[in-house]
Design goal:
heterodimer, A: 261 residues, alpha/beta, Rossmann fold, two-stranded antiparallel ribbon, 24% strand, B: mainly alpha, 4-stranded parallel sheet
């Protein structure tokens, strides 16, 4: 089975002190470390596992600059056979433009199954997967936390709200957007990444993919980005045990509202 | 009748004996070739330099011939081994001497022969006595650390049969022949009195002679296929021990290869060590993991790794290839104990007690390298730690900026900002980031300032030395970190480094390429300052303390006395020792990457240690390693020892005595 997995290099923002670019249209990223988008890591692992179990090929695709090839080399080290980078040049990216670029890149690749992450850790739109499925005219399921391929169909477990799950069957070729926790992604060693550096990464551009500016007009316009307003700081309770206990009780009464039952 | 040795008395088919003897020698040589070819199957073959090592030779004499380590802690085992070894070796030499006497130079006559036969008599009795002790220990007293396999009983029985039948044969001949020299063959002579008539003895003789000959030849043939092979492998391993005492993986998983090698790539010295094991179990008895009933045992690990490497080398050898060709399928390889390898704390206790210097942590490291390359067996916590280390230069925090947070409010010169300093203080990842261990650094900085040491740190430029990467087998990441760190030392002209952690210290000292930088652990610097009278005035601390030797300070670097001198220098401090201390120290459970593993055994290693400390009646358990500090501190809570025992770093104890920690409360 031939699988295409779409991956993205994203800035690591947990525990980082974010600073906005002048003009408030973006976060300053030059001081941030980049890592593979967490969801895509699970999607890539799932693709490699399917290949290891039943053969075929895995092609990793990303939209990004030359520096973002690190994410493709990581996928190659995991066990992907091919890697394609779509260089957007100066095209402004939103979910729809990203989906258009990915669709043009994926179309000529052999694909019985296309996997994406549910969302990307930077903008959190969560729609590139479904948009890509539409453009490729594929059946799709989103937020998949389990899958198995049976002949010409794929059984996918879809995570719903409130701990509910839905089991659905899709004809191949299909697109699934993968949720974290679907597997335990393997460790990718530095030696492995260095070895993978010898595999050539194919580079495409909007031009080479035959896309025109009309296809590459964002649906969304970013008006402004701002840091969330600071909320009240935590109150540190001081004093001896009984005093702290009394204060906790008072806070609970205050929050719960009155009755001491 | 002349006084001389009798050969082939009444034996007619002498050529048959020599054909069989030649056959057993061929089988012996083939077996030895098979085992040695496993050593040579190492990716880089035998070590490039095999020059004469006086230290290796001295160790072979002391530990091989005299069996120094066999006697340590187990006199009976040492005696048993000496009797069997010298009995066996002596009888072998005697046989060679007889062959020379019979076929080449007839010299065993008269007085010489009398002394010769007396010696053989004594050697035979030594061998039998040794085997008896072994049988009694193994099957009557059932010494706990011995595991009993079929091989163990076979070898002992075979040795006993060969030796006893030798005496019987001699007795029969003496009974039948009644020569004048029997007084010197007292064993055989004693037996000869049991046989009724010379005629009967003469009739029985050929049968017993052949029985003895076949048993002896069988033993020779069986030798290299059994644990007896250790007689050849152990001296080699002991000889190599001085140069392979440290785990030094090469770049065998290197960039040169397009494909990651599948399975662990044991190196020459490791393959020798695997084949030198006799499964005596001393390692299991001291292994903190095995003792805590975790699913790891150094002895089984060695045995499994040996079986694996023999199978791999065997299937690659011409004979193996032919067999595979004929069978049309590859023989299944025995499993490599990959999951178990993560339990090893690399504490080196196994190497410390092994009579022939086998350290299980070395093949463990090799298995981990292949596990890291394979990737799917790496635990999520370790994966996260390594990825954090790769991206942020430390295994703990996804940020580079918290590196100097520990020094808030203290005067700490930054070498990278132009400060002049004689000593570069390498704080280390754990010490910088963990709130408990930060106190270690704060105390040390104050002590150095108090003693007038010209010191500075690398500030935000300090990264990870790469120890955790190397210990868990992430060679590529280790190389990256080591290159970065060595580059920083060069750029800022660092020539003298003092570390918080024994782990960084050990890695710098033994696993970085040799350079101009001198590396020391802080206990060594403080010991020097104490000697110079610069740690003064030390105010009395009225406390009973016990000292926990960190593995990488003690066993790896033999720093046992400096920390104790420092503690004893404080007036009022009474130092008591735990049951396990010095080279026998018990690991806290944090080493070898265990800090980043979610492994649970029957007992927590750190609790075992904290309880042992509490049993001494000490109020303070002092250590000199950030891992130990964290592990033991955590263990206090879970073992219910809070309030009874305090865990402190040596720096904190000294800082308190020097009156430097007033506001730290530590």
């Amino acid at each position: 089975m031939d699988i295409v997995v779409c991956v993205k290099n994203v800035p690591f923002t947990q525990e980082a002190d974010l600073v906005l670019e002048p003009g408030n249209k973006d976060v300053r990223k030059d001081n941030l470390a980049y890592v593979i988008n967490e969801w895509d890591n699970y999607a890539a692992e799932e693709a490699i596992r399917l290949k290891e179990a039943s053969g075929g090929s895995v092609t990793a695709v990303t939209v990004g600059s030359e520096e973002d090839e690190e994410v493709l080399r990581r996928c190659l080290a995991m066990g992907a056979d091919r890697a394609v980078r779509v260089d957007p040049g100066d095209v402004t990216l939103d979910a729809s433009v990203t989906a258009a670029l990915l669709a043009a890149a994926v179309k000529p690749l052999p694909h019985d199954l296309v996997l994406t992450g549910v969302q990307a850790d930077d903008m959190n739109h969560g729609v590139v997967g479904p948009l890509l499925a539409e453009r490729l005219h594929l059946c799709h399921a989103a937020v998949v936390n389990g899958l198995s391929v049976n002949g010409s169909t794929v059984e996918a477990t879809v995570e719903l709200d409130g701990g509910q799950e839905e089991l659905c069957s899709l004809p191949l070729p299909a697109l699934l957007s993968v949720q974290t926790g679907i597997n335990e992604p393997r460790y990718v060693s530095i030696m492995g990444i260095r070895r993978a550096a010898k595999i050539d990464i194919e580079v495409a551009s909007p031009d080479s993919l035959g896309l025109f500016s009309a296809d590459l007009t964002p649906d969304l316009t970013l008006e402004e980005m701002y840091l969330p307003p600071e909320t009240g700081a935590a109150e540190m309770l001081a004093g001896d045990g009984p005093a702290i206990a009394a204060r906790i009780l008072a806070i609970i009464r205050e929050k719960v509202g009155g009755s001491n039952g | 009748m002349p006084i001389e040795r009798t050969y082939f008395w009444g034996i007619h088919a002498v050529p048959v004996f020599y054909v069989l003897a030649a056959l057993s020698v061929v089988v012996f040589l083939f077996g030895v070739y098979r085992r040695v070819s496993v050593w040579l199957s190492a990716p880089r073959g035998r070590p490039r330099r095999l020059g004469f090592s006086p230290r290796g030779a001295a160790m072979v004499a002391a530990d091989g011939l005299l069996g120094r380590r066999l006697f340590r802690g187990d006199l009976v085992a040492g005696l048993m081994h000496a009797l069997i070894m010298w009995g066996f070796a002596g009888l072998f030499v005697g046989t060679v001497m007889s062959t020379v006497d019979h076929w080449f130079v007839h010299y065993l006559t008269g007085g010489t022969y009398r002394v010769f036969s007396l010696c053989l008599e004594i050697l035979g009795i030594m061998l039998i006595a040794g085997v008896l002790i072994a049988l009694v220990r193994r099957y009557l007293f059932r010494v706990g650390r011995l595991e009993n396999k079929a091989e163990d009983v076979w070898i002992l029985v075979l040795l006993a049969v060969v030796a006893l039948s030798g005496f019987v044969v001699e007795g029969l001949r003496l009974a039948g022949q009644a020569p004048a020299t029997e007084a010197f063959s007292f064993g055989g002579a004693a037996l000869s009195r049991l046989f009724s008539t010379p005629a009967r003895a003469t009739a029985a003789y050929p049968y017993l002679w052949w029985f003895h000959a076949l048993a002896a030849l069988g033993l020779v043939a069986y030798f290299p296929f059994s644990k007896l092979f250790h007689s050849l492998a152990a001296p080699v391993n002991i000889y190599l021990a001085p140069q392979s005492g440290r785990f030094s993986p090469g770049a065998e998983a290197g960039e040169g290869d397009d494909q990651a090698a599948s399975g662990p790539q044991f190196q020459f010295n490791e393959l020798v060590s695997l084949s030198a094991c006799t499964r005596c179990g001393r390692c299991d008895a001291v292994c903190p993991s095995a003792s805590a009933e975790e699913p790891f045992s150094p002895r089984s690990f060695i045995a499994q790794a040996d079986a694996y490497s023999r199978a791999v080398a065997g299937s690659a050898a011409p004979l193996g290839r032919t067999a595979r060709h004929l069978l049309g399928r590859p023989a299944p390889l025995p499993g490599v104990p990959a999951e178990q390898s993560w339990f090893c704390t690399t504490c080196r206790a196994c190497l410390e007690v092994c009579p022939v210097y086998i350290g299980a942590f070395k093949p463990v490291g090799r298995v981990r390298i292949s596990e890291i390359e394979e990737g799917s067996g790496v635990s999520p916590l370790l994966t996260k730690a390594l990825e954090t280390l790769y991206t942020f230069g430390n295994p703990w925090e996804p940020s580079k900026r918290q590196r100097t947070g520990w020094a808030e409010g203290l005067e700490v010169p930054d070498v990278t900002a132009g400060a002049q300093a004689e000593v570069c203080y390498w704080v280390g990842c754990t010490t910088s980031v963990d709130t408990r261990t930060q106190k270690l650094a704060r105390a040390l900085v104050r002590i150095m300032a108090h003693a007038g040491v010209s010191f500075g740190t690398l500030g935000q430029k300090e990264g990870c030395c790469g120890d955790i990467a190397r210990r868990v087998g992430e060679e590529g990441l280790f190389e990256e970190q080591a290159d970065k760190t060595a580059g920083i030392f060069r750029r800022y002209g660092v020539s003298e480094v003092v570390t918080s952690s024994p782990h960084c210290f050990n890695l710098f000292k033994h696993e970085y390429p040799a350079g101009a930088v001198r590396f020391r652990h802080y206990t060594q610097l403080l010991d020097e300052l104490l000697g110079q009278g610069r740690l003064a005035p030390l105010a009395p601390l009225d406390a009973v303390v016990t000292y926990h030797d960190p593995c990488y300070l003690g066993r790896y670097n033999h720093v046992y006395d400096a920390p104790r001198r420092l503690l004893r220098a404080i007036p009022g401090v009474r130092l008591v020792e735990m049951a396990h201390h010095g080279p026998d120290s018990l690991c806290c459970g944090g080493g070898g990457g265990r800090m980043w593993q979610e492994l649970e055994g029957e007992k927590k290693l750190s609790e075992v240690r904290a309880r042992e400390a509490a049993e001494t009646g000490a109020q303070i358990l002092v250590t000199a390693c950030p891992y130990c500090l964290i592990m033991l501190e955590d263990a206090l809570k879970t073992a219910g020892l809070e309030g009874r025992l305090a865990i402190m770093d040596l720096n904190e104890v000294l800082g308190r005595s020097l009156g430097l920690l007033g506001d730290e409360g530590g």
